[in-house]
Predict the 3D structure of the following.
Amino acid sequence: MKSLLIIDDDKIVRKFLEKHLRDEFEIYQAENGEAGLVAVNELKPSAILLDVQMPGMNGYEVCDLIKQNPETAEIPVVFLSGRSSVRERMLGYEVGGDDYIVKPCEPEELKAKIGVLLKFTDQQAGLQDAFKEAHQTAIVAMAGSSELGQALSFAQQSFCIRSYNVLAERFFAVCNFFALSCCLQFHTKQGDLFFSSKGDVKPLEKELMVLLRSDQRIHDFGVRTQFNFPRVALLVKNMPVDDRDRYGRYKDLFPFMLEAADAKLRQLDAEQALLQQTKSLLMSFMSIQTVMSGLGTRLKSQQDSGMAVLKSLMQELETTLPKMGLDDDQENYLIKRVDQAIVETFQILDSSEESQAAFDKVVQVLHQLIDEQRQVVDEIVIHAEDDLSESAPPTNSGDVELF
């Protein structure tokens, strides 16, 4: 049952009101303003009937003090007065009164007005509770939206990352925004790489992360949680287990971020493999070029030596034949045979020159391939160095438009 406090210096009025209202309310009485204030603070009644004209503290002063107290400000106050002027009503309104009834009044009218006030008060209380709940929901939603913006920003930035170190730095930038201390393990073709958001990864942490790597996606132990993906594992060392909303949001956001990191690690592994293959091809091309250049040089030297031998032979024959005492037929046969050998030798040399030209063309193509491969290697290395030289920029949820 709702309670009602009657503050009036007239005992007869108090008795009259109690008689007609006690069936619907639990009635309390006070004979003046000072006693009324004490009763209000102690009883916290559902509503107050307050006489305006009282000795000592009048009704307006009492109402003003009631409304100034945060603990009693929401209690509806109905003024009872023998005066009905606009000024009197305005004074009641200024001090926070909720209704103004002129005496004498009908009990049924009084009941109806008090009932309306109490219903209005209950609705206001319900609206305030709903507002508080909506306000809290809005705060949680805004926090979640900001956190989602961080996660989306990381996924967006990961496309341009070209090194393992920068990938870890960008991930830890989001962890720092969440006020979380974390360790990362990257399982790469080059071996396992460990990173920490604060200092170095402890040996025990490394051992623990390796032991917890399994097909189970999430491991919870105390305030720590490890998330496992094929190429990346995340150990969160201070999950907010006391805040179930944040805890739930992080368990939704981290798998999304780790899936993006896992895809980036697969791409980085492929790029590293391509870089190593490109370097190997470059070294192979350079070795082939060296061998081919040496062969070409020796071939040219052998051609020059052959030409020198033939020239020497011709010169020797020219000086020796007349001294050999050969008859004309023998001399002609010998000269003819030597001429034929020289012609055949020149034909062979001409063919060798064609081979030399083809050989030089092959060497030229190899040289061009070496330059192209060197440019590819330099470009990959330069991009990686540029990426490493950049510190992780502060992420801002405003960078990603969610709606």
About this structure: The chain has nine helices and ten strands. Residues 137-144, 390-403 have pLDDT under 50 and may be disordered. Residues 244-320 form the longest helix (77 residues).
